[in-house]
Amino acid sequence: MNDECDARDIYEGLTAKQVEVLDLLVAHRTTKEISRELGIAPNTVDQRIAAVRDKWGTSNRKDTARRYAEIRELCGKPICGFSYLDPEAQTAESLGQDLPVDPHFVLSDARPMELPMGSFQGWFEDTPEPLAGLEAFDRKFGRFGRLGMILVLALLMAMTLATVLAIADVMGRLL
After folding, report:
1. Transmembrane segments in this chain: where (predicted)?
2. Which of 2, 49, 92, 114 has the most CB atoms in a 10 Å sphere around its CB?
3. 55-69: per-residue pLDDT in tens?
């Protein structure tokens, strides 16, 4: 009980902004990822982590994250945002009720990968959804653009092969 009280005191000694940063730090996010997610400067993220390190006397980010996770666990506040379940309240029927009898993956379960909207910003003003891969290339350059790109790539591959063969020939003569 004493550990639990100490953990609560330590947890309550943190500011809301420090808790915000530490939650993401425990989720193995980098400073840059944390700053993007919270909309703050990376330097601010580092300052908040450094302030906690100074309070707790930890030597690095990993120790700080580990200690924060332990404190959250002792306080009964899970890191992932899920509440603890009462093991006695679970019945046999509620365990696994979401799972199908024969789970399998089908192609319709997959969704295509999307690039961030900023990747093609300014290319397609009339397109509300982001385009990726060959669709984006076709929209920008058309089929003839794709054919031209294939020819350019084939020419580059032929030049690379010719260069490698020339180097191999010269190396063969030297030996």
Report:
1. 147-168
2. 49
3. 888 888 888 888 888
